[in-house]
């Protein structure tokens, strides 16, 4: 790990000011991705700005037809939240399946989506539910937030403050997990909303993406049988020791059908 300065601000405004002083400074949330990256010397920053003391970034609340989750809320908190389970059970189930107890109790929703790991679970919920990512500067539609592998629409010094999830009529998330890390080899989030159906896929490609052919089929009939014959092309999908692009393409279809069957 390279040397760096460490700051622990008392407010979002103070954190933003600290980050603005140097383009090589980075915010620190749960640290489940950032700290291992630093330990392996895969990145070098001049300073870390720890958001851990900012209680204003924690919490889960219902706001009309949306479930609002603060950026520093841990996965374990989402998984155990009665409010989350009443509003969007699929989201609580997703959080419960992330990593191991250490990761769930330290990792945060804001840190997860800011890092944008291609095999992370939360991106599927962001896109699948049509969520809005709110920062200290603006609101970003979920469809516009993830821009590529480990890339997002966040600008230097921008801090995620909360995520707003519209309440679906039905939803479910199903994944095929890599057994050691619990990251998604493939994960599919399906949501039936008043304005249509959304199907988001994580783990299969360089970044989360919508399975629009499945959305069209399910818009006509929200039933697993509606996906018969609808497939994802393996072109451009991930291929590694855990599964080929063709394997992942097949898994997308299988998990999409299972997610529709499980939706509630």
Summarize the structure in short:
This protein is of the alpha+beta class and 264 residues long.
Account of the protein in words:
The protein contains 11 helices and 14 strands. The termini are far apart. It has 2 domains: 5-166, 2-Layer Sandwich (Uridine Diphospho-n-acetylenolpyruvylglucosamine Reductase, domain 3), CATH 3.30.465; 170-262, Enolase-like, domain 1. β2, α2 (34-39) and β3 (47-50) form a beta-alpha-beta unit. With 264 residues, the chain is α+β, with helices and mostly antiparallel strands.
Q: Please give the share of residues in helix.
A: 25-40%
- Biggest β-sheet description: 5 strands, antiparallel
Radius of gyration: 18 Å
Q: Which architecture of the largest domain would the CATH scheme give at its second level?
A: 2-Layer Sandwich
Q: Which H/E pattern describes the elements?
A: EHEHEEEHHHHHHEEHEEEEEEEHH
Number of helices: 11
Number of domains: 2
| Sheet/helix structural class | alpha+beta
* Outline type: globular
Mean pLDDT: 97
* CATH level 1 name of the largest domain: Alpha Beta
Strand order of the largest sheet: 4-5-10-6-7
